[in-house]
Amino acid sequence: MNVNVQFREDGNVLRGYIEGEIDTYTAPVLREELETVQIVEGRVIELDLSKVNYMDSTGLGIFVAFYKKVTRDNASLKLVGLSNRLVRLFEITGLSELMSIETDEELELK
Protein backbone atom coordinates (compact mmCIF):
# COMPACT_ATOMS: atom_id res chain seq x y z
CA MET A 1 0.00 0.00 0.00
CA ASN A 2 1.09 3.55 -0.64
CA VAL A 3 0.52 6.86 1.04
CA ASN A 4 -0.92 9.79 -0.87
CA VAL A 5 -0.70 13.41 0.28
CA GLN A 6 -2.44 16.41 -1.24
CA PHE A 7 -2.52 20.00 -0.01
CA ARG A 8 -5.07 22.74 -0.47
CA GLU A 9 -4.59 26.32 0.66
CA ASP A 10 -7.56 28.20 2.12
CA GLY A 11 -6.47 31.67 3.23
CA ASN A 12 -4.17 31.25 6.22
CA VAL A 13 -5.08 27.57 6.56
CA LEU A 14 -3.17 24.87 4.71
CA ARG A 15 -5.12 21.61 4.61
CA GLY A 16 -3.31 18.37 3.95
CA TYR A 17 -5.20 15.22 3.05
CA ILE A 18 -3.34 12.01 3.80
CA GLU A 19 -4.56 8.66 2.51
CA GLY A 20 -3.27 5.11 2.85
CA GLU A 21 -0.92 3.38 5.24
CA ILE A 22 1.92 5.05 7.12
CA ASP A 23 4.63 2.56 7.96
CA THR A 24 8.36 2.01 7.53
CA TYR A 25 8.01 1.71 3.75
CA THR A 26 5.70 4.66 3.08
CA ALA A 27 7.01 7.02 5.77
CA PRO A 28 9.78 8.50 3.58
CA VAL A 29 7.15 9.62 1.05
CA LEU A 30 5.11 11.32 3.77
CA ARG A 31 8.24 12.94 5.25
CA GLU A 32 9.23 14.34 1.85
CA GLU A 33 5.74 15.75 1.26
CA LEU A 34 5.68 17.43 4.68
CA GLU A 35 9.15 18.88 4.12
CA THR A 36 7.82 20.79 1.09
CA VAL A 37 5.27 22.66 3.24
CA GLN A 38 5.98 26.38 3.51
CA ILE A 39 5.58 27.22 7.18
CA VAL A 40 4.76 30.86 7.79
CA GLU A 41 4.35 32.44 11.21
CA GLY A 42 0.69 32.33 12.27
CA ARG A 43 -0.31 29.80 9.63
CA VAL A 44 -2.64 26.97 10.60
CA ILE A 45 -1.77 23.58 9.16
CA GLU A 46 -4.53 21.01 9.34
CA LEU A 47 -3.77 17.41 8.40
CA ASP A 48 -6.78 15.22 7.67
CA LEU A 49 -6.03 11.60 8.59
CA SER A 50 -9.56 10.27 8.05
CA LYS A 51 -8.35 8.07 5.16
CA VAL A 52 -5.31 6.68 6.97
CA ASN A 53 -6.15 3.05 7.67
CA TYR A 54 -2.90 2.07 9.38
CA MET A 55 -0.02 3.81 11.11
CA ASP A 56 2.94 2.48 13.08
CA SER A 57 5.53 4.18 15.27
CA THR A 58 7.41 5.41 12.20
CA GLY A 59 4.39 7.52 11.30
CA LEU A 60 4.19 8.89 14.82
CA GLY A 61 7.82 9.95 14.57
CA ILE A 62 7.15 11.84 11.36
CA PHE A 63 4.25 13.74 12.93
CA VAL A 64 6.34 14.58 16.01
CA ALA A 65 9.16 15.95 13.85
CA PHE A 66 6.69 17.96 11.75
CA TYR A 67 4.97 19.27 14.90
CA LYS A 68 8.32 20.48 16.25
CA LYS A 69 9.13 22.22 12.98
CA VAL A 70 5.71 23.91 12.82
CA THR A 71 5.78 25.14 16.43
CA ARG A 72 9.40 26.31 16.08
CA ASP A 73 8.24 28.54 13.22
CA ASN A 74 5.31 29.92 15.31
CA ALA A 75 2.59 28.22 13.30
CA SER A 76 0.05 25.68 14.53
CA LEU A 77 -0.69 22.09 13.61
CA LYS A 78 -3.97 20.25 14.00
CA LEU A 79 -4.56 16.60 13.15
CA VAL A 80 -8.19 15.92 12.21
CA GLY A 81 -10.35 12.99 11.28
CA LEU A 82 -8.46 10.41 13.31
CA SER A 83 -10.11 7.01 13.74
CA ASN A 84 -10.45 5.66 17.28
CA ARG A 85 -7.52 3.38 16.55
CA LEU A 86 -5.25 6.29 15.61
CA VAL A 87 -6.44 8.37 18.56
CA ARG A 88 -5.53 5.46 20.85
CA LEU A 89 -2.02 5.38 19.37
CA PHE A 90 -1.55 9.08 20.14
CA GLU A 91 -3.01 8.63 23.64
CA ILE A 92 -0.81 5.65 24.52
CA THR A 93 2.32 7.60 23.60
CA GLY A 94 1.17 10.78 25.34
CA LEU A 95 1.24 12.72 22.07
CA SER A 96 -2.46 13.57 22.39
CA GLU A 97 -1.47 15.84 25.30
CA LEU A 98 1.03 17.65 23.09
CA MET A 99 -0.76 17.91 19.74
CA SER A 100 -4.18 19.20 18.79
CA ILE A 101 -6.18 16.15 17.69
CA GLU A 102 -9.75 15.87 16.44
CA THR A 103 -11.45 12.52 15.90
CA ASP A 104 -13.43 11.63 12.80
CA GLU A 105 -16.61 11.75 14.93
CA GLU A 106 -15.86 15.34 16.02
CA LEU A 107 -15.20 16.25 12.39
CA GLU A 108 -18.58 14.83 11.33
CA LEU A 109 -20.36 16.95 13.94
CA LYS A 110 -19.05 20.17 12.37
TrEMBL record:
Residues 3-110 form the STAS domain. PROSITE patterns: STAS. It comes from the Bacteria. SUPFAM superfamilies: SpoIIaa-like. Keywords: Phosphoprotein. Signal peptide: none annotated. InterPro entries: Anti-sigma_ant, STAS_dom, STAS_dom_sf. Belongs to the anti-sigma-factor antagonist family. Positive regulator of sigma-B activity. Non-phosphorylated RsbV binds to RsbW, preventing its association with sigma-B. When phosphorylated, releases RsbW, which is then free to complex with and inactivate sigma-B. This is Anti-sigma factor antagonist. It comes from Solibacillus faecavium.
